[in-house]
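Entry 14. Ran structure prediction on the chain below.
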Amino acid sequence: MKHTIIDASQLELNDKVVAIKRVTKTVKGGRSMRFTALVVVGDGNGHVGAGLGKAIEIPEAIRKGKEDAVKHLVEVAMDENSSLTHDTIGKYGSANVLLKKAPEGTGIIAGGPARVVCELAGIRNIRTKSLGSNNKQNVVLATISGLTQLKTPEEVARKRGKSVAEITG
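Output, structure tokens:
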């Protein structure tokens, strides 16, 4: 997955905790408990990222997850009605997420983890379907993977050496 480096200091980022898991490790003296937090951050204007934080206490795990998410911010190409520029499938592990362009007024039709990513990216009209694995971490990363694959009509036109009118029809 390609990541373009985005300066997060100028962005107004919101964050949402998608999942908190309790992880145990059996050691000589018994079991040691730790927590893993999956956090998604976004500015609601085309930037979104996900991160994983692990720590002995939940707030610390969330803080670490937020820091990791800021490091992995990606930019999302959107059209004029806050939807996708074209349909795509995001893949990560065995999780596949189908992302479909939707007309104005559709809203966000998506399951839990994919919905959080779309909301924080600033997408207002989209239809998604999670295919394959329903592991929250993989679904979030598959959704972000799909969003990074999006190209604007301008990019496609420039790449093919055509005008935007020829591309959009």
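The two ends are 30 Å apart (CA to CA). Will compare against last week's run tomorrow.
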